[in-house]
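Action item from last week, closing it out:
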Amino acid sequence: MILSYMKIKVELEGRDFIEVECEGDSHSSPGRVLKVTHVGCAEFMDMMQKMKRHFGADISKWPVPEGNDHSSILLREMVLRLRGEWKFPYQEDEVCHCRTISTHAVDQAIIAGAHTPEVVTRQTSASTACGTCRPEVQKIINYRLKSA
């Protein structure tokens, strides 16, 4: 078995992030957590402290948060990534080809609170031309907001 070192980072750019350094079998999901770094707003920091106090330091063993606030969305992604259960619904770099809007920009808007296609459109201009990307935007919203 070959152990690999990896860093996993999830973030709302410019606001909050969780970065986990871990080692694991290079042929499976991440393994043993070596270090956790997190920075963010008071809500985010409070959530991280409470979870650590109640469930220990290993984030992969924490319950999957069910809320749709940015803190819960970020922590949900990290927990699922550490468990090898993260399956983002859209794999292309660009979701809106007419307006050249990246999937990352749409995803960041959703994390920050754009929870309907209309709000995503207002914040990113995705789906303002031909509209064929609207179903993909909805898939990303549905994935991000689903309860565990």
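Closing note: The chain has a mean pLDDT of 92.
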